[in-house]
Amino acid sequence: MADNIIEVKNLKKYFKTPHGTVHAVDDVSFNIERGKTLGVVGESGCGKSTLGRNIIRLQDPTAGQVIYDGQDITDLSNQQMKRMRHDLQIIFQDPYSSLNPRKTVMEIISEPILFNKLMKGSSKQDVEKRVRELMDTVGLAQRLINSYPHELDGGRRQRIGIARALSLNPKFIVCDEPVSALDVSIQAQVLNLLKDLQKEMGLTYMFITHDLSVVNYFSDDILVMYLGMVVEKAPAEVLFKNPIHPYTKALLSAILVPKVNGNPDHISLRGEVTSPINPPDECRFTRRCDYICDTCKAGTPPLIEIEPNHFVACHCVKPEGITLQRTVGV
Amino acid sequence: MSKKAAFATPDGPIVYKKRSRLMETWNSLKTNPGAVFGLIVVALYILMMLLSFVLYTREDVVAINGKEMFLRPSAQHWFGTDEKGRDVFTRIMYGSRYSLAVGFGAVGIGLIIGVIIGAISGYFGGAVDILIMRFCDVLSAIPGTLLCMVLVAALGPGLINLLVSIGVTSIAGYIRLARASVLATRGNEYVEAARAIGMSEVRIALTQVLPNSLSPLIVATSGNIASCILSAAGLSFLGFGVPVPLPEWGALVSGGRTYMLKAPWMTTFPGIFIMVITFACALLGDGLRDALDPRLKK
Predict the structure, then answer these.
(1) Does B22 lie at the interface with A, CB-CB under 8 angstroms?
(2) What are the structural domains, with CATH classification, of chain B?
(3) Is B126 on the interface with A (CB under 8 A)?
(4) pLDDT tens readout for residues B238-273
(5) Does any domain span residue A268?
(6) Contact B24/A at CB under 8 A
(7) Alpha-carbon Rg of chain A, whole angstroms?
(8) A9, A165, B212, B256: which could form a disulfide with B266 (CB 3.0–4.6 Å)?
(9) Domain count within chain A
(10) Dihedral angle, C-alpha B133, B139, B140, B145, nearest 10 °
(11) How far is B172 from chain A (nearest CA, A)?
């Protein structure tokens, strides 16, 4: 029996718009094991961030369940949720808009501590000491304690965001594309920092990204999302060695290889993303898929375990054998 | 910027210093010559108003003196005298209490009510937002001066009623501005970060969103002080303002209008006083906006 820190069951998040209902997250289920990292990949607008925000209840799910550490947190009131929030934190994508421009580093990092009265009874010096510890932990020079965010570069700002998330001693952190706004050299630093923190503090991550090389380096398991649904789920090494779903194949072939003639096996997807507003009851990838078979229009495909721990949602893939045949554009 | 250097140079543990917002604002403000000028002028006007309470009585400014009509500016009468032989300088000094009260009071009413309603509208959205915005549409559909007149007529004449009517008339503008600014600010991720640490919506609105939405409001407010003084002047001219013999500045300008060629000092001097305070408020407002925003510090 795996020790799951997060269990998500049939989570749905719909947004009502004047044009119809947007199915941002549609019937997503998965578990995250304690101390592991789940990578969530998919293109822009596929519902990755919405999924992350729903799990830590920054948004309220339309339907489904989120179970944290054995406790259903889906219907907790704001007051009850306040205590859970210590354990569930988030690191944001954009280090420029995720920090209040009117607060100094000290104020930003100490705000969660002071607001939640975590250090009740201890002096201001103790809070300051704690902030300095956190700054050390994330590799932020202590002399920056009086700075405003705009005085610092992107990497340092992201470290402030990480320190803020750590200040409540969380157990589970949603990393919402934490490095995609940073340049490559800084990306590596921040990724290594996150990895080290995980080892030291036993953190569990849900790592949202659209950068596949990052997710391979970082994750234990990978969840591939397309238009609000999970299309493939597998341990990282399995997924990279043996991608099954046509969408995953196309995604992986998009990774750049250092070869003069490029990647000969590159798959280009046709068309654009289908609208998530009132999607028809069929496989959502049908309209862009190169492997259409006659069952594609017969409802949304369920996730099937085709080998241990490797799940795929595709009508054309049968558990007894992989029968995927390229049918379009051959 | 010696203070900044003290923060940044030594590498290693450095003393945490609470950066006092008030001191930082002041330090930044005093490096801005326009803002300093504006501040000095506003201070002088307030000083003038306070002095007028000590120096003059109501009798000094309304008493008619048939022997000294239309005197040119001289050592005796610095700004000359008007058609009833009253000293223009005295009247301007005395009138400052009305004009400044209307200018700052009306803006204060409009700003406070407008920001509260606008922030609620922008932050919480939904049905409340629609309701408030339609209310604004109704308010803006009526011409400002007309609305003022209707309100004064309903409330009765007097300084306080004048001030309230002008303030109420400007509310719609403040609501719209505050709403737009809050809408732009609340989409920032630091708002979500505050939610993630368990802050309530009201607290987020007050501590995270509102302080970051103030810049356009400060600028609009400084501009509005002048337009409120001018509205009061217009209403006085129409007989809806401060009762006639009292020297509200707008009343002085409109009263001297008839004698524009014969005694131009009657309109020029109060006009200059209105212009200077308008200019000073605009400069001070610009300076304040820059000083209150840590991102704009040099």
Answers:
(1) no
(2) 34-296 (1.10.3720.10)
(3) no
(4) 778 787 778 888 888 888 888 989 899 999 999 999
(5) no
(6) no
(7) 21
(8) B256
(9) 1
(10) -160
(11) 27
- Look at residue A274 in the predicted model and tell me its pLDDT: 76
**Is A136 domain-assigned?**
yes
Query: Are the Cβ atoms of A92 and B198 closer than 8 angstroms?
Result: no
CB proximity under 8 Å: B 211-250 to A = 211-212
Q: Among all residues of chain A, which has the CA nearest to that of B209?
A: A100
Q: pLDDT (tens digit, 9 = 90+) per residue, A66-113?
A: 999 989 999 898 888 988 899 999 999 999 899 999 899 999 999 999
Q: Do A246 and A289 touch, CB atoms closer than 8 A?
A: yes
DSSP A213-242: HHHHHH-SEEEEEETTEEEEEEEHHHHHH-
d(CA B141, CA B162): 20
| B197 to A111: CB separation less than 8 angstroms, yes or no | yes
Phi, psi for A130 (deg, rounded to 5): -65, -45
Taking the C-alpha atoms of residue A99 and residue B269, their distance in angstroms, rounded to an integer, is 50
Sign (positive or negative) of CA dihedral A293, A298, A299, A301? negative
Residue A270 falls inside a structural domain: no
ipTM score: 0.85
Number of Cα atoms under 13 Å in the Cβ half of residue B69: 8
Vertex B216, ends B211 and B222: CA angle to 5°? Answer: 110
Query: What's the rounded Cα separation, in Å, for the pair B198 and A324?
Result: 48
Domain that holds residue A146: 101-167
Whether residue B89 is predicted with pLDDT greater than 70 in this model: the reply is yes
B190 vs A58, A98, A141: nearest CB: A98
DSSP A93-154: S-TTTSS-TTS-HHHHHHHHHHHTTTTTT--HHHHHHHHHHHHHHTT--GGGGG--GGGS-H
Q: What is the residue type of A180? A: S
Residues of chain B with C-beta less than 8 angstroms from the C-beta of A140: none
Chain B residues in contact with A129 by the CB 8 A cut-off are none
CA-to-CA distance for B109 and B240, rounded, in angstroms?
Answer: 19
Q: Which residues of B touch A104 (CB under 8 A)?
A: 19
Q: Is residue A145 part of a domain?
A: yes
Q: What angle do CA A268, A271, A275 make, to 5 degrees?
A: 130
Cβ distance B13 to A90 less than 8 Å, yes or no, reads: no
Task: Tell me the shortest Cα–Cα distance from A247 to chain B, in angstroms.
Answer: 30
A222-260 exposure pattern, b = at least 16 Cβ within 10 A, e = fewer = bbbbbbbbbbbbbbbebbbeebbbbbbbbbbbeeeeeee
